[in-house]
Amino acid sequence: MLLGRLGLEKARIPHADRHGLVWLDRGRLEVEDGCLRFITAGGGDLAPGDYQIPHQSLSIVLLGPGSSVTHDALRLLARHGCALAAIGEGAVRFYTAPPLMPDTSALAREQVRLWADRKSRMEVARAMYAMRFGEIVRTRDIEVLRGQEGARIKRSYQLAAERYGVAWRGRNYDRENPNAGDLPNQAINHAASAMRAAASVAVASVGAIAQLGFIHEDSGQSFVLDVADLYRHDVTLEIAFGAARQAQRTGQPVERLTRQRAARVFRQRQVIPSMIDRIKTLIGPQEQKETGKDG
């Protein structure tokens, strides 16, 4: 946490230069002497104490279970363009976020520009597949890309099942009853839901447009689904099959185990900061793409 007062409007950091996010739970977010503070008695990841939050350098504050926020805190966050999201334990659920209102529309305008042109939209889709599979895909046909993804993810399921010693009979997903499948399929459903929540946090934190996806098209969360899929074949399956194995061994509810494992993995592997970096690389203005994490 930074020391000293950070409330000077002239010292405001441009949103494009921010990268940080903080996770807070089981406490109270308030303002004291113009500074944002979080007071907690402990019980979560933070030790008991009174913490000053460097809101000017943050993209988003993630407020977890057992927390409250004052009107003054909301006003201060809004004034300095720092978003606040109510999340589940470890960001495996994304409940709400006030409008981010960043100080520039540059990333959103670049997203629209890339999305509106069929050729550049396809180039972003190809870049997403390259991030996922570590190689440049040659085709410029989105349906061919989707077919290649289907074959690769099918193989990824089998490899993950073998790695964790879980019996795998194939993907079986009933949208009307997602809990109807066997343990591995249920775990995949819950892990995918958690990953979408993490992607929602990342998309909200940079002020991107959730509806404008480059691979997904119909959903109102199309870009969120695009970002979540960047982690589908490795992180999501690691969470799912690890939780399925634990559920088989302990008899504990697979949904709870999956959420707990997801929260751990998100933090250990810095999944949301990684998502933010990838969004900026894929659709950020050129200066952000060139500077990487510094953008």
Question: What does this protein look like?
Answer:
By secondary structure, the chain is α/β, with parallel strands linked by helices. The chain folds into 2 domains: about 10-95, Ribosomal Protein L15, Chain: K, domain 2, CATH 3.100.10; about 105-295, CRISPR-associated endonuclease Cas1, C-terminal domain (Four Helix Bundle (Hemerythrin (Met), subunit A)). Helices cover about 50% and strands about 15% of the residues. The protein has helices spanning about 70-80, 105-115, 120-135, 140-165, 185-205, 220-230, 230-250, 255-270, 270-285, 285-290, and strands at about 20-25, 25-30, 35-40, 50, 60-65, 70, 85, 95. It has a 4-stranded mixed β-sheet with strand order 1-5-7-8, sandwiched between helices. Strand 2 and strand 3 form a beta hairpin. It starts with 19 loop residues before the first strand and ends with a helix. About 40% of the residues are buried. The model is unreliable at about 1-10 (pLDDT under 50).
Characterize the overall form. Answer: flat
CATH architecture of the largest domain: Up-down Bundle
User: Which range does the strand content fall in?
Assistant: 5-15%
Give Rg in angstroms.
20 Å
Characterize this entry briefly.
Helix content is 49%, strand content 13%. The protein is α/β, with parallel strands linked by helices and 295 residues long. The chain folds into 2 domains: 9-96, CRISPR-associated endonuclease Cas1, N-terminal domain (Ribosomal Protein L15, Chain: K, domain 2), CATH 3.100.10.20; 106-294, CRISPR-associated endonuclease Cas1, C-terminal domain (Four Helix Bundle (Hemerythrin (Met), subunit A), Up-down Bundle), CATH 1.20.120.920.
